[in-house]
């Protein structure tokens, strides 16, 4: 099974425009399940199309399984029909004039596989994807999910070493998404295919991929496992792009004119971070309590938004706004006062170039002594008798 | 996982590497090769004739050396001077130009008025029988315009010219010249022919209007008049303009109707003047006239393009609610239906019945039983000088029918396929310049009215040039001229079809490993079968009706039905001529119905693109 190597890959459309893909270098290992994640227009689909050979590189090189398929320096280009890969288009691109079966066995016919074997393989893959019963229907007679399975079957039938998927779950409804997610996982395990897919949806990326490459404006921002990407964003873009509700961004450089009281509070508490430009904290890392403490911020609850099984609470302190999310039903009312605690370990810092700063902040003294995990599943531990951990969200 | 966030060093290959890589890429893209071949072909088939005719206007022709006092082939302003500033220019250019513009403007004004009224009645009122009229009123547009001209002469012809008299004359009424020939009948006939086009285009626009816009105005308290004039009319205006310009351009190039109704009384338009100049071997003057027609065509198109750009600013038309709201006409419901009914009678029923009756009457206008005969269809050993058998037993008729089917059939087959290929090449070609050139050049014949285009073809292919032998008198010349003439429609529909299809079905086949031929054979052509069929059949129908190309390029051995009927008319075999015309009208009508049945599309969609 082949690896995919992208070396300094750049794609420019026309002249004098900013590149759609700018000097991207990624190595996708054999058998990997990778997601190219980014907002629309970040160049992720262009990369996918270049790997497939439908687009060509403006500079750089693409190597599939050790052989160069597209290289500007070597003046080489292998057309898609010779690359032996699979690509599932976002809108499936099924051939409307062929039945499901003909769509699926098209690639096998091209390879001149004898009829019996062709039929067997076609039947096998259709059964695996549970579309065998629609074999004689036309694409227009199928639902969106069925169409997508046909598009997938069409590519899997020829058993490509590399499978590329363009927004595989985006056109599906919620139930089908879950079903298809499991399906893709299963395919990855049974066929052992290297899968690269493109998505703008972090849920899709987090739940499916082993590795995520975050992209923005044509450049690669960070590669890592879903956990790494979430827990240690390498720059401000990744921090803000990943996570729902969005991460709380606190501008520290603004603090000099004392506009942002949260920033003031952080700078006062952690003088080491004075040279950082921004600081952020995930909504679920904020801890709320009724009891004030030297390290808490007195905040007003502005809004409580239920999001089905969890709650997003909007907090204000002067002109500053923070969002907190929790799995516990909040018992406060709007306009009530609470005390918010921002644990130092949960804070991410970025410099003026928006790159991650490693700041060795002293562990919060209140936390040093805390060992046991709290009962709410948060990573932070609290002293049972400490006012902060008292009834968090559990006042009767 | 390795982090490769730092990406400072840009590997910018120099232009040579880029070019080499582009070549490596395009080697696998046959669309580029096709685009180049097509561009060269059309440069020769479309651009070269046009340039050649323009050059004809400024270089001395063989035989003109004496008149121009210059050597043959030398640069001269003689033809231009003669057409624009000589004693003759009033006859050669200015009067025909005036006549042409008068006809075109008169036709546009009247057919718009009539067409908008009818479109409103059909689409926006509860007039009796509106559904039926919606499809019936289109029929006159399917018939060749000169069918009406033949019917008109059959009824109104007077003693000014020889031959058999018209019916009214035979019944004892004297028809004045203004009624029988010239401006008035030409305009009336063109109005009858083009009003259906207005009904189609404006009717389409009316039905596509979002009813919510009207509702919104009504909620704000606008009276009905205000709604009509400040909401609906401005939104329909682009459609009105485009119908007007389409009709105007067609009228400028109209040849057959003024040929039949204008020539007998020396009422010349630019196109008949061009024909007469060619006929009297004044190719230089003919070239000047052709250039004038082309310039009018170009100006019309530029106005059209400008209008379309203006119109695009508010193409929000079309939403959920289509405008199937009707004004109730109350007790006028049935009376209103008399307007379209009268139009139907005048534009279709009377002409066709007249034509048919004229073919079964020995003497025109005498409605006695003994005067009726089917001899002109199926008779034998008639007492005429030539044409001694009925038309159905005349070998020339069948020869002409076969020629028509053969020549027009091959031409429309080719133009349909070429149109799809142009669409493919334009949407796939990686060189913007080439695809732009291809798109514009295939549209060029639209600017050049048929008669001028035929003259251009004659000027280019009448003599052997390089490896191309002289083609005059061969069916090949007619076929390639027809292909070139039909390219605007064919390429437009091809490009539209390929754009609508998008690249993905083919890309998916590439990923599956299919070669170019497999992709074409298994994916593109089967999916595009419908548009392809329309792209072949529509040119076929309009080719059968066409006159202007054939009358200049056809010789007796390549006679087609249209030229055959005109020849019969010239020799005063009126019944036989009308019989042939009647046959053409029927073929055109049923052919169009067939297309609608096959493609499932309404004619209107094809016309608007």
TrEMBL record, chain A:
The keyword Lyase does not apply. Residues 374-396 are annotated as: Disordered. It comes from the Bacteria. GO terms for cellular component: ATP-binding cassette (ABC) transporter complex, substrate-binding subunit-containing. Gene3D superfamilies: 2.40.50.100, Nucleic acid-binding proteins (2.40.50.140), P-loop containing nucleotide triphosphate hydrolases (3.40.50.300). One of its GO terms (molecular function) is ATP binding. InterPro entries: AAA+_ATPase, ABC_transporter-like_ATP-bd, ABC_transporter-like_CS, ABC_transpr_MalK/UgpC-like, Mo/tungstate-bd_C_term_dom, NA-bd_OB-fold, P-loop_NTPase. Keywords: ATP-binding, Cell membrane, Hydrolase, Membrane, Nucleotide-binding, Translocase, Transport. It is an enzyme of class 3 (hydrolase). Its EC number is 3.6.3.19. Residues 4-242 form the ABC transporter domain. This is Maltose/maltodextrin import ATP-binding protein MalK. The lineage of its organism: Bacteria, Pseudomonadati, Pseudomonadota, Gammaproteobacteria, Oceanospirillales.
Automatic annotation (TrEMBL), chain B:
SUPFAM superfamilies: MetI-like. The keyword Secreted does not apply. The chain crosses the membrane at residues 33-55, 101-121, 133-155, 178-206, 227-249, 284-303, 334-357, 405-426, 446-464, 470-489, 529-555, 575-595. InterPro entries: MetI-like (IPR000515), MetI-like_sf (IPR035906). One of its GO terms (cellular component) is plasma membrane. Belongs to the binding-protein-dependent transport system permease family. Keywords: Cell inner membrane, Cell membrane, Membrane, Transmembrane, Transmembrane helix, Transport. It is found in: Cell inner membrane; Cell membrane. It is a multi-pass membrane protein. GO terms for biological process: transmembrane transport. It comes from the Bacteria. Its main location: membrane. PANTHER family: INNER MEMBRANE ABC TRANSPORTER PERMEASE PROTEIN YDCV (PTHR43357). This is Putrescine transport system permease protein PotH. Residues 97-304, 401-595 form the ABC transmembrane type-1 domain.
